[in-house]
Specification:
With about 375 residues, this protein is an alpha/beta fold. It has 11 helices and 11 strands.
């Protein structure tokens, strides 16, 4: 941020969400020439930047439940978009036409062939356009799709062998999904990264706990992120779930709990089965982790966030190995059994009373008919 780019030739590596946000800003200086090195095309959509009027802010603050109702409507609106991720979805086909039209109208015609993707929208993270497409019309902005072979002292060498002279390079190449600097160690000294490698990629249970790592909880873990709705809601759901898990530990009723490998395997089999009919494997994206090996989405949850909330509304305690809480576990099972017995007795009583009622009604009807005859 403290480098003056005035009068310099700047190479921007990457054309994802990061690059498309800052490029229009540095391109506003006409003496700065920008060369954006791109690897793959991206889908762009109109950026919605609605400003709430003061009267509506007042209403949210003073009318009970109004803000909660509004938030629920937003969630429902975006959650219904889940169908866009399904293979051969009509919603996806319509969205593709709309996004293509927007890009053709906004970006320079000379870039259309290279910029407009052939893969379905949302296969990669969708980019909300921050005036990036408009900035491509400026004479000081250019795109390069050849690919970089290496970085040298005075610029970059392309895969064709040509050198591009640069004064500065800005990396907009994303981020790592798997921890690299912090080693989380589980039972037997196994690190979380080693566990992921043994599973062929990031793997967890509800994206929150991992077998072999007792009392370790995460948010936004493997296959828990939403590609179509609010990540805040996902985080809230996970935090509520984690609080339920750690409560007996904090209350001193158990020492630790650990999800079983069997439960984790069953959950991930379900996850991968649901992934089979989605578009996530039609392109390479960070959804598939930090390498290009293997066709597997390790990031997003394959369903509506309402479904994610439903399966996490309460822990399935049988999926966990408990240490120092065997008595608590036994009491919990006994209470659950008593609830089922009570429910069964209630249903039986209702059924029995209903039978008596029907017998009474039938006999009363017979008497009325006999009197009328």
């Amino acid at each position: 941020h403290d480098v003056d780019l005035t009068g310099k030739v700047v190479g921007v590596i990457g054309n994802g969400c990061s690059a498309t946000q800052f490029m229009p800003i540095i391109a506003a200086e006409p003496t700065t020439r920008i060369i954006n090195f791109c690897r793959s095309p991206q889908w762009f959509t109109v950026r919605e930047d609605y400003r709430y009027p003061e009267w509506l802010k007042w209403a949210f603050a003073h009318i009970p439940l109004l803000m909660s109702a509004y938030r629920s409507l937003i969630m429902i609106k975006f959650d219904l978009l889940w169908n866009i991720f399904l293979t051969n979805s009509l919603v996806s086909a319509v969205a593709k036409k709309i996004l293509t039209s927007y890009m053709q109208k906004t970006a320079p015609a000379k870039f259309h062939d290279e910029m407009i993707p052939t893969y379905p929208p949302w296969c990669k993270r969708l980019i909300a356009d921050s005036d990036y497409l408009s900035a491509l019309h400026q004479p000081n902005v250019d795109l390069n799709w050849i690919g970089i072979q290496e970085i040298v002292e005075d610029g970059v060498v392309l895969k064709t062998g040509d050198k591009v002279l640069l004064d500065a390079i800005i990396f907009a190449t994303g981020f790592y999904l798997v921890e690299r600097d912090i080693a989380f160690c589980g039972i037997g000294g196994l690190t979380l990264r080693q566990y992921f490698e043994s599973e062929g990629g990031a793997t967890g249970y509800y994206g929150t706990v991992f077998p072999g790592f007792p009392n370790m909880f995460t948010i936004m873990g493997p296959n828990s992120v939403s590609g179509h709705a609010s990540s805040i809601f996902i985080i809230e759901t996970q935090v509520n779930y984690i609080l339920k898990l750690i409560k007996p530990i904090i209350d001193g009723k158990m020492k630790s709990l650990e999800v079983t490998p069997k439960a984790t395997a069953c959950y991930n089999t379900w996850i991968r089965k649901r992934m089979e009919n989605t578009i996530f494997l039609n392109c390479f994206s960070y959804y598939r982790g930090d390498s290009r090996k293997g066709a597997r989405n390790v990031v997003t949850f394959p369903g509506m966030i309402t479904l994610y909330w439903w399966i996490m509304r309460k822990p399935r305690w049988d999926d966990f190995k408990v240490v120092g809480g065997e008595q608590w576990f036994y009491e919990r099972r006994k209470m659950a059994l008593m609830k089922y017995v009570l429910l069964a007795l209630t249903v039986s009583a209702i059924g029995y009373n209903s039978s008596l009622l029907w017998i009474f009604v039938a006999r009363l009807n017979e008497r009325l008919l006999s009197k009328s005859g």
